[in-house]
Amino acid sequence: MSRLALPIAFVASVLAVGAGAEVRRLDSPAAEGSRSYSLAAGGDGAVFLSWVERVEDGGHVLRFAELRGDEWGAATTIASGEGWFVNWIDHPAVAPLGGDRLAAHWLVHDEDRQGDYGYGIRLVFSDDRGASWRPAFEARGEGKDGYAGFVAYAAVAGGFEVAYLSSVGDEPVVEGVAGNALPNGDGGSGHGEVEPRMTLRSARFDMGGVLLGDRVVDADVCSCCTTAMAADPAGVFVSFRDRQAGEFRDISYALLEGERWTTPRLVHRDGWHIRGCPTNGPAIASGGQGPAVAWFTAAGGESRVLAAFWNREEERFGDPVRIDGGSPRGWAGVAMLEDGSAAVSWVERREGGSSDLRVRRVGRDGSTGRGLTVAPAPPGRSAIGVPKLVRSGDRLVFSWRDGIVRAAALRLADLE
How many Å apart are CA 239 and CA 224, to the nearest integer? Predict the structure, then answer.
């Protein structure tokens, strides 16, 4: 795998969004037409943006860049190839794991696939901040039209944890660096149109990116909603859209305590009855007082974006707070703030059919701050993808797609 540095013009524009608040637009390091993006923040304050580009002679390439201040570093190539699965909802990503350790993944069609699915995960590891990469993990959904994807990461003591979805077969195919089969524990035209049965699984890696094991977290989940993970003093939280009897699709969580996952429980019983995957998953972030989860629901025919905080004393999530402005499209993001409150982002419809990427502060007491517009959002879910939100120091950083993968920053003080 090669490393390719590309020159980038570092320019930032400022957009006033009212009452002294300013969104600083950061020029994108990605090429026109870039898509399938992700955003992650490291413990040292660095922010990593990753994306996929199509190459002229066929195939795709996965690249990333690191943000310091208002400047992106050189775009670096992680991997390139043909036969990739590139989609608006199931995004590749780069994950900072502490120090110079990074993990990254992308999605590749299986050779014997039938139809548009039939793809799996290729995960690589770097201990030199992306200068070189080595294979660490592969997973394929059993069956020619199944798949494995929707990956989330969390750094843990002694290594890192990965959550992912995998279609159910006789035995999901999971391989480590040497290609050795591992024990698996307990035994269309686009996402959302065809729904194979899916499991939520987790894989544990050591500090060197070596796979230690793989197991089932939940044996029947919604098939194509994003997963989310956050490390916390209580353990590792994973949040996902569950699939319960009667086709109810509410948000659940499980907690990794030591080496065992707890039985999944609902974050809140919304009661959203829908016969199919809404492709609108949760977000989770953790802080000193415990994590917060943000998500979209249309239970009872009413679209809402909600957020709930973990109660350490009662060991459960509290009652949710409504975040949206009355007409959300969803795709929530969340970042924790120093005082235990959270910033929540989402996509909101405007009159006339257009939309905005917005953000608002929500407190553990249920209070909410003013809603601020980060950027206009293009129509159509494939046009915008799934916007991302992270916190870096005294500001929030956002990414979304509008013909190109874009990014912007907002001072935390402007949320007040």
Answer: 13
What secondary structure, in 3-state letters, does 34-83 show?
CEEEEEEECCCCCEEEEEEEECCCCCEEEEEEEEECCEECCEEEEEEECC
For the cut 50, the answer to whether the pLDDT of residue 376 exceeds it is yes
Q: Mean pLDDT for the chain?
A: 88
pLDDT tens column, 194-231 = 456 899 999 999 999 999 999 999 999 999 999 999 99
Helix, coil or strand: residue 309: strand
What would the 3-class secondary structure string for 183-205 be?
Answer: CCCCCCCCECCECCCEEEEEEEE
What's at 113, amino acid-wise? R
Q: What is the mean pLDDT of residues 4-25?
A: 59
Higher-confidence position of 405 and 16:
405
How much is the pLDDT for 180?
Answer: 28
Rounded to an integer, what distance in angstroms lies between the CA atom of residue 95 and that of residue 390? 12
| Structure tokens belonging to residue 71 | 């400047």
CA distance 133 to 309: 37
Q: Are 388 and 398 in contact (CB under 8 A)?
A: yes
| Other beta carbons within 10 Å of 86 | 17
Question: Which contiguous run of DSSP H or E holds residue 92?
Answer: none
**Which DSSP symbol is given to 264?**
P
Nearest 5°: phi and psi at 299?
A: -60, 140
Residue 182 has pLDDT above 80, yes or no: no
Using CA atoms, how far apart are residues 106 and 85, in angstroms rounded to an integer?
8
Q: What is the pLDDT of residue 333?
A: 98
Distance CA 113, CA 147 (A): 9
CA distance 55 to 61: 7
Q: Report residue 192's pLDDT band, with 50, 70 and 90 as the boundaries.
A: very low
Reduce the DSSP state of residue 337 to 3 states and report it: coil
Ramachandran angles phi, psi of 383, nearest 5°:
-75, -35
Q: How far apart are CA 336 and CA 411, in angstroms?
A: 14
Q: Are 265 and 210 in contact (CB under 8 A)?
A: no
The pLDDT, as a whole number, for residue 379 is 87
Give the Cα separation of 371 and 350 in Å (integer). Answer: 13
